Amino acid sequence: MLQDWAPVLIFLIIVTGFGIVTLVMSYVFGVKKPDPTKLSPYECGMTPIGTARERFSVKFYLVALLFVVFDVETIFLFPWAVQFKVLGAFGLLEMLIFLGILVVAYIWIYAKGALEWV
Fold first, then answer.
1. Which residues of the chain are modeled with pLDDT < 70?
2. Which residues, other chains included, contact 63 with Cβ-Cβ below 8 Å and sequence gap of 6+?
3. I need a surface site. Which of 42, 69, 87, 93 has the fewest CB within 10 A?
4. Cβ distance 113 to 59 under 8 Å?
5. Dist. CA 26–CA 31, nearest whole Å
6. Which positions ≥6 away from 77 have C-beta within 8 Å?
7. pTM of the entire predicted model
8. Where are the domains of the chain?
9. How many other β-carbons are positioned within 10 Å of the β-carbon of residue 95?
10. Which residues lie across from 43 on neighbouring strands?
11. What's the maximum distance between 2 C-alpha atoms anywhere in the chain?
């Protein structure tokens, strides 16, 4: 049994060692010259205005939810389309249920106005 898991154990030891060595090396050899410019938050090359504790519009969160819905749709539709013939009628029914839930999410997002980009 140990012979079966030996490659996995060796790999985990190598990965852990590599992670620890790279962290220690960056700490030891890294340049440590802090100044106010380096310690300030970076905002796309612009001088930061205000504090980091600002409130954001709900639209930012709705756009993030929209991205998640599109992403999940892609993740589930592509493998299903590849294995369509193998899954048969059960796979088709399963995907129709999934698409129904997805349509409900799209309707909710549309009702909240997340699809209005202006």
1. 41-48, 52, 117-118
2. 114
3. 42
4. yes
5. 9
6. 95
7. 0.46
8. 2-112
9. 17
10. 46
11. 64
